[in-house]
Amino acid sequence: MDPAYTLYCSTALFPPCSQEHNLLLAACNKHNSQNQITGFLHREHSVFLQYLEGPAGSIQETMGRIGRDRRHKDLQILASGYLEKRYLPDWQMGFVDGSQLSLHSLLEVNKGELNLKSQDPFDLVVFLAANADNLRRHLEPRFA
Questions:
Q1: What pLDDT score does 7 carry?
Q2: CA distances from 83 to 16, 52, 122 (A)
Q3: Which of 141 and 79 is assigned the larger pLDDT?
Q4: Domain contains 44
Q5: How buried is residue 95: exposed, middle or buried, by Cβ count under 10 Å (0-12/13-18/19+)?
C-alpha cells in the first residue's frame, strides 16, 4: 500500500529551549524509527509545522499521540492523504528553528501573523524538505 502523509501545525507551549527540543527529538526519533515514519519538524517562534509520512496505521496512531501531547495546542491538520513515494525516505526526524529557513521571511509576515491554513500544503512540504536538505549539510541542528 502507498505511504500515507499528514501535514499539521500547532502552537508550542514551551519556550525555545535546547534541552526541551532535544527531549522531544529523542522521543520522536525512537517512536518514528520503530513505526517506519519519516518526516520533518520545524519550530519557529511558537509555531510547530510537521510533515509525517509512513504506513497509514502508524500515521493515525502517531497523530493521536501528538494530539494528546501537552507541549502544544491548537493542532490543525493542513493536509493528509496518500503518496506514491516518500518525499523524505531517508530522514527519521529533523528539527530546526527559524535560524535556518524562515516561514515568516518566506511568507513575508511578522511574528504571530502566520496563517498556515491559507497556504498551499505542497509549498509547505517543499519548505520542510528544503530545511531537511539544509540540515543534512550541517553536522548539528541549531537552536535559538
A1: 96
A2: 32, 11, 12
A3: 79
A4: yes
A5: buried
Residue 129 domain-assigned (yes or no):
yes
In a domain, 48, yes or no: yes
Q: What is the dihedral of CA 1, 127, 39, 85, to 10 degrees?
A: 20
Rounded Cα–Cα distance for residues 88 and 6 (Å): 13
From the list 111, 14, 30, 126, the residue with the least C-alpha distance to 70 is 14
Per DSSP, the three-state class of 118 is helix
Enter the C-alpha cell of residue 69: 501531547
DSSP 8-class letter at 112: T
pTM of this prediction? 0.84
Write down the residue that cell numbers 518526516 correspond to. Answer: 39
* Residue 125 grid cell: 512540504
First-to-last C-alpha distance (Å) of the chain: 40
Q: Is residue 14 part of a domain?
A: yes
